[in-house]
């Protein structure tokens, strides 16, 4: 059984009684223990009369009390909890079920006397429990025995309504079966809920009646409060905590209504401070006789609000809402503490501060106790710790007020921020009772110790809750305290460390204030202006410019002079730093950007007059030497733009910056830098996006588009030009030098999940360079002239698991023009690993010949041009095997489109049986785009050879022509047939460029395909395994004769008529030539043939289906008869031949079936059936004459 609750009456009572003889027997303690073992009751489903939902009471504490100990008092006029009286009364009967005589003579009268007593009690239920032994159950009588049992008599005598209140339990000492009392427990649940619902309905009616009488004379709020609180206490005792909390919330709302009307006649004064009221635990309901004070109408508003808060918080704690407890107390201390200021004159000095301080700490202590008693979900722990941190911060704020008034703290932020209202001197002669505060008021060191301890407790709670910003703010107050106490070194350490924590949270004003305090503390300590001081100053200037804000700057009267002195001091300190940077020379490859630098720092200026009408202003410049801008692209790609300067004037300055890295694309502004001597001022633009809508442009990233430099060094990748399936995969790197005469270039390749074997790199066959080196991690090329293209192939690990792989190429190169400058650039390229073509093969066995049909399709939307396709035997050759192509020799180049594949036929003749070695399918191809780009490149070079001054436009012209063809695909069909390339019309503003385009398009229009494929082609070699086939069956139906024709064996085909029976022979010839094993030809197989039913054309008569034994090169003949059902020209029926399972051979758990292919010898033949003709003679009578 659960422990007794603290509040009296907050429990469910169940009374019990039994005959005195049974109560005094040794069996009763055992029965009592067995009943108590069923408690507490669990999973009770309760439905409110005002709500449709069903609430489940997980656990209900029930206390068994003897009926004799309850006093039958008259109903009190003072409302109490509904649980003060038992909700159910139990009478225990120990009478065997068959002992009817004892029941009539003794038990019935005892039960009747008890029943007459408890049945008259209001809102109480009753229950009769019969205990019997297992061996003493009533024997089963015959059909005519109607005496019944004791349980039947109990139900008949006392169940006056439809509800059954009698329970029988079969029990013996030592029986621990939990199901023995299950029915009794369920009856007890029903009885408790029934009695409780009746009591609640009656009490709700009383509350409703009292609430409706508010406007009537004599109505008393305190009486109404006690009445409604009894309902809340009853819900709490029944573990219906949400309903109890609702009652207290409604009481609080009623009090606010009374307070708003200023009708406080039912209360005493607003506050009548007792000796210890400022230090008593806030949430204790036993520190004062609150109920008696409420009934006497003498309770103060101060005590009443505290009592109501304490009851609400206790219910919230039982529910598990400890975070709501801290939030509610925090709000209460803030609002009610403000109201106490109106009564400050009548209170002891520091009473309000002592009360808020003591209350906050006592609530933290009480919540820690509740955590050990009630369950708190782990997800709610951060909010709970944050609430405790807010309470501790309230306590710390009271120390700020006490310290300011006692002179322990200075009248400046952050201490003066807590003093928003000037306190008035108290006229009361009392004293506060909190010993800690009394000691802190008199002893400065004790105050500082208490201040630091309370602040650290709040910081610890905020840290556990994950509220770093609040913890950091309190750290700042500790630094201010160290500064006030003369602990300058400690204060400087804190001031310099805090801004780094404020910056991520965008607390710019607070960050600026801390940095300003750090600078002042640094000056007070007279420390040298070293690198640390410069870092502090730069951070301060950054926040000053960002916030435009001098909201918390302490030097308001001389801001201009203050900032100017700091800038000058920074210049002097930076000049003494060691040189850590070098100047970049403008290179050939690269790009430019235009930037605007805005100097918001105030500058000192003087005026000079050179004439009466003209004034010259000499401004003091920011002593800057260089402006840098860093842009960030994809895959950690960064560009650094530089421009040397000679100072920055106030306001806006336009500059042009250069970057030597020839990259292009969309980039994000990452950082901007200004160098002052050896000092680097950096502003990082990558900030976290603010939560919620914002209209500030500073919240959006700055995007910069860098156009492509067509004459810069460029690297591309593609699939290898020579692919052989089954061998190591390779990719080809194409290097284009552009305008650069490269003296040395190093290329490193990397890709996720792929390893490259650079040491096995092979240079392209058509490309040569003076020197080529392949190391373990890089490929080095030496001496590549300008406008040169070089390619090399790099083997790599298997990439078949990827549809595409993203390859990063890190390139370092130097040029002959500037050998001292090494340029670094990163290229990110995507290579599709799937082949551009797919090949499907279909095989047809015809005796000793195998015909293979290869279908070549494109795997993308691009067109593929195929110059040749051959099926090759191994280099050593195959004995007895010949391979011939079935395609025309003058076929030329074939174009494969997404909707039109290409077919290639090959005939393989084998005299020695199956071919056991693999063949190779060789395909020579390239993409249509590659062919067209190569043609355009060739024609552009031919035109530019006549215009040497326009050579630098070559790359641009090729790009323009390719883009024009990409926009309009109408040229594709014409080019595929004739080779004529019709370029859509293009207009250029530059007349010279336009003339060049006209010449080039004319040459392209006059182009024709050559008879033999030319240009650069790709090759792919695919291994092909020749298939096996156990049985090749050739089926043929041959017409032999028709009726009325001589069977002389003449070769002349007979004439066929519809409806005429036609004699035919079905011949099936079998061959084991392509079998998988050498001894295949000596085997025999059981076969089955089936002549296809063609019910529209033929009627087949004879053995249409049958089995036969097949041998190598054997023939099976079957005569059949065909009847044409109508005239016309149509094919003969088809024949299917299948192999039957081979007995004794098992494959995959079932009988093995040999592979079989059947072809129709007569499949291409058709017969002509004529309509049936004839003559009939009819005799017609012409009359008697």
UniProtKB/TrEMBL annotation:
What range(s) does the TRAPPC10/Trs130 N-terminal domain occupy?
26-319
Q: Which residues form the TRAPPC10/Trs130 C-terminal domain?
A: 1023-1170
- The answer to whether keyword Disulfide bond applies is no
Any one of the GO BP annotations: early endosome to Golgi transport
One GO cellular-component annotation of the UniProt record comes to: cytosol
- Principal subcellular localisation of the protein: Golgi
Give every DUF7077 domain span. Answer: 711-818
Taken from the record, one Pfam family name reads: TRAPPC10
| Keyword Transport recorded | yes
Q: Enumerate the UniProt keywords alphabetically.
A: Golgi apparatus, Transport
State the compartments where it is located: Golgi apparatus
Q: What is this protein called?
A: Trafficking protein particle complex subunit 10
In its UniProt entry, the species of origin is given as Crucibulum laeve
